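Q: Given only this backbone (130 positions), what sequence would you predict?
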């Protein structure tokens, strides 16, 4: 991998992704599970769990990078705009820093919906396993 490398990864927030997260983690927060509650609080519908996006970052690291012998060392994400069921997202990422002495790489990323809105941004640092 070379400094400046760019990646574009597409994701869909499907019913299966939503239900899978809810069932595995038993998170029943009404903002995520109750359409009426979410609308009463100013949202267009149930807001998807933010950690679904963290899962997409994990997929990017484990499946989209040209190397597989990696481990996440640090991950940070900031949520800006709600994500809803059936949203299509593109994760734009680039290799921002390379730490040769410790075999680590820092990627900066953002998620953008089909309306062109950046819904979240962050960074993930990975280390190469020996």
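A: Predicted residues:
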């Amino acid at each position: 991998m070379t400094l400046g490398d760019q990646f574009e990864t597409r994701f869909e927030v499907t019913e299966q992704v939503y239900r899978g997260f809810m069932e595995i983690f038993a998170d029943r927060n009404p903002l995520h599970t109750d359409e009426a509650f979410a609308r009463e609080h100013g949202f267009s519908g149930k807001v998807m769990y933010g950690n679904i996006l963290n899962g997409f970052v994990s997929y990017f690291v484990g499946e989209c990078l040209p190397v597989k012998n990696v481990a996440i060392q640090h991950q940070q994400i900031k949520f800006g705009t709600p994500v809803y069921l059936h949203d299509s997202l593109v994760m734009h990422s680039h290799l921002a820093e390379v730490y040769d002495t410790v075999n680590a790489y820092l990627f900066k990323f953002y998620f953008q919906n089909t309306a062109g809105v950046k819904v979240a941004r962050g960074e993930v640092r990975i280390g190469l396993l020996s």
